[in-house]
Specification:
594 residues; four-stranded antiparallel sheet; 31 strands; globular
Length: 594
Amino acid sequence: MLFPGLLALFPLQPVVAAAGETAFFQDDTLVIRKGKIDIEHGVLTPGADTIIIQIDSASLFDIPTLGPQEPLPTTLGELLAEADAKRKDYDFSAALAAYQAALGKADGEQALARAGKGIMMARNGMTLSESCRIPAVVAKQKFSLKDFYLFYPLEGGSWRTAPNALDPAPDSLVHATYFPRETVSTFFSMADADGFRNLYWTEASGKEWTAPRLLDEHLLSQGNEIYPMLSPDGWTLYFASDGLYGMGGYDLYYSVRADDGSWGEPVNMGFPFSSPGDDFLLMDTPDGKYTLFASNRECSADSVYLYVLEQNRSPLVRPVTDPAGLRALCSLSPTADPTRIDAASAISEEIPDNDNTRLYQEKSAEVSRLRDSVYNRERALDALRRQLATLTLPEEKDALAARIASDEEALAPFRTALSKATAEVQDIEMAFLRSGVDSRVRRTADSEVVGARSGYVFAKKAPGGKLSIRLAPAPVDSTEVFRIAPVGRFAQENTLPGGIVYQIRLFSSPSHATVEDLQGLQPVYERLTSSLQFTYAAGLFRTYSSALSRLAAVRRLGFPEATIIAFIGGRPVDTATAREAETYAALRETEARP
């Protein structure tokens, strides 16, 4: 009996059968002892202890042999390397299996943590792939990591190179701080005492700027947060983080500001904005046309791609779960339709008012009008075509088909005019570049324009001058009771003082925690809840900002779910209530001063 599909699975040496029993060739006989084996579409289950399958040895020469196979990873290091490679290649299910295998071989806290984090990232990738956005891609251009931010369509002089007054310690990804001229408040990223980057805010107050303040515990992770950018309407903050819910590297997030000024839970923007690479510095253009962001997902560590997408508040969302599909989606290849690109948007504000630029602006407006007209007519034609497919009476179908043909003929001149106007706009742009138009862009010594031939123009802006601002000293909470030491310590008395008090809640447990569980935190308060659970909270803080400044360090000690809790007069209240009371008390104290 000959089973070609089966023979291809087994080399001529002892192997392991499907059920884990020994299988081997003996002359022209395949012998499988005590087990079962899948044979193509069926399962043969023996009643005896041994299956004997006679092989036609002459036919072996007609069976294609398997090429050399890469050995499966077996060591912990090999498994982790394989898992990382699969995750970065968008094969999250294979990465998950490799991370889980690595977890079984982990022999120390560091290996356990790495495998555990990998499992989480792979699962996050699988979850995020269930709802991917499908954007319209306008442009894609590679730039140096050193100055890519200067090619964003922002006012010249907005970026201040680091180190500066707000960011004294730049890192491998962050080389500048966004601080436009005439601004009265700004969001920025700066390293804390432990070297991790957090998001801060400051505003002008008289001749100095307020002491930098952390934004909110929702926007604080165990890792780093970089490149905050506020939306044009001021209600959404975009930023990148490598410590929040994500799939590895820096992912892109947004948080929405509430009416009371607090920030909501950050939301991972998902594929294709986020990826297993580093994705950062997302902004929406004020004209509502484009969204831009940077990523090193397809390039070397010293460069990034800038992606320009059509701004769309209600994009198509669908699952893309296979690795090849995710790779294609996240490559963000630009559309081949030049009518969807507004070449003026990136540089129009940089060009002075004269006869040439007025012609340029008129032609750009003409392109916009023609594009809208073509789009509306095409939509109407699509509706008629759908209607035609539903008709059954021949006379009705013939009448509607004739109307569609007439409308298609009428659309042709609009398409021709649009193509002509688009080409004229691009010719004017190239003439500007050749003649050295007298504009702020061309007057800049290091001016550079990229992508004019593709329709979207990346115009390099000059960096701003030295950032000379005076920051008010950070307030000191002299009543703060908190310490991280080699050995943790429980509070001798669990009674809280009066007034407003904040603590950092660590965890709950059905049994008493030990000193080792405290990870060096002092003092830690133990409480028994009505559900007979012991809860543990660290420190005593009189201000929310004081507690917030310690939260990230506590999370990094091994309490990732740590949160800030509040009390007034020893009774628990939500933090919003405590913060309102804190603000009111500060105002009364200010008013009482002579």
